[in-house]
Amino acid sequence: MTQSTRETERKYEVPASGGIPRLPALTGAGTGWSLVDGGAHDLDAVYYDTPDLRLLGARATLRRRTGGPDAGWHLKLPLDDDTREEIRAPLGTNDHGNPDDVPDSLRDLVLSRTRGVRLEPVVRLRTERTVRELVDADGALLAELTLDRVRADSLRGDRGHADWTELEVEAVAEDTARTVLGRVEKALRKEGFTRSAAPSKAARALTETAPGTVAAPRTPAGTAPRTAGEHVLAYLAEQARAVVDLDPAVRRGLPDSVHGMRVACRRLRSCLRSYRPLLDAEVTEPVRAELKWLGGELGAERDHEVLLLRLRGGVDALPGELVLGPVSARLQAWDAARAAEARDRTLAALSSPRYVALLEALDRLTGHPPLRPKAARKAAKVLPAALVKEHDRLARRVERALRTPPGPERDAALHQARKAAKRVRYAAEAARPALGGPAKRLGRRGKAVQTALGDHHDSVVAREALRRQAVAAHRAGEPGFTWGLLYGREQAGAADRERELPGLCRAATRGGLREALRS
Prior knowledge:
Blueprint: E1 3-13, E2 34-49, H1 54-57, E3 61-66, E4 72-78, E5 83-89, H2 104-109, H3 111-114, E6 120-135, E7 141-154, E8 161-171, H4 177-190, E9 194-195, H5 201-209, H6 228-251, H7 257-274, H8 281-316, H9 327-350, H10 353-367, H11 379-403, H12 408-435, H13 437-475, H14 481-508, H15 511-518
Antiparallel strand pairs: 1-5, 1-8, 1-9, 2-3, 2-6, 3-4, 4-5, 6-7, 7-8
Helix pairs in contact: 6-7, 6-10, 6-11, 6-12, 7-8, 7-12, 8-9, 8-10, 8-13, 11-12, 12-13, 13-14
């Protein structure tokens, strides 16, 4: 069993004083703020990583710690510069019977970063910790300040050692974290404290026990993209990181995580298709096929989530006298069967060698991109052509769908137009840093069409699900009135949406924007 918390903290170098380092007084940090004794602890932590330090390279850490109030296994994943998610598991044996082995639950959560490479002890940190609690005038806890005297011993071949003292400041409440940390930092600077350059104790320990052997954490490129290829690659790298970063949340079933990973897959596929002239298709097309596979596996769970919310919302909106028979019970039973099956499908995909191979392929694609000569040209000269092409495809599909008589064929045509709207939106996202306003407006219009057509498609799916529920209720001798009523409401809503589509789609495919992209 794991549990998760968020921590927002900053680390500081302790100024040399020629004596024993002391915690700062923080005079003037805040009106009525004061420090109270929080005790002292001796901590002993062994950090685990792959032989080539893949977790460190992704700014993640995994440790087994004893001592202090939170002994156990701790996995820390980056969220932003100051905030990390900490996932904890208790000490004890894992499924293999060895108490020093990484728990399988945490091993799975780092798979997107380790790619299945074995985890091993890499460094041991023994820390003498002195704690002070920062409280306000009412005694409410604002932050913890910990003065840590650290002894680091490398467990790798170099067997180096290092010692240092640092100060950690961890805010207690998320909503006030930035304010509290900002005021504390201002006071610390006056007393000679400076921000630490190391992202974590483990990173500092590995660097100082074996100088020159530790790669810096992977971060986005510091220089702004200039060529067309650089802009596209920056977008691809951002979406590939999203897949990796969302993996632990998807495995734990956190809200919107499956949706987020599926959208990242779609963005990658769309970008690779829209900007084919810049990339070697022999390399990118197999990656697109695998992204389609992963999106499909995730789609079972996400589509069920969306459909369930729609059906439940429809039932909840009805007056009680119109809900006849065991409608909620039938919906609950249907959900239990479908949700479990979809969840198993998601987890099976993320545990497969095929998924790991896809992550490696994305690494190769972004790390060693198969660029074609056109990618070296200026973005403003190349990217608009791709956007105009997607713009024109959307216009053709919308026109075709609106000419098709209402019915299943029109539903299918509108769904194809929806896919084209997504490609417009994602191609515009990739080009926006280079093209500015025209790309932003095109992306906004594409999103509007996508949203409208998405609602229409969800209605098509919901009507089929309601029809099946009505059939099952009839066979069980239950009233089918409520299911039929919901079907009729969905049908009427879809008709209203179709009447709105011509104006919306004409606005999205207006020629003036197309000309602006060409200019």
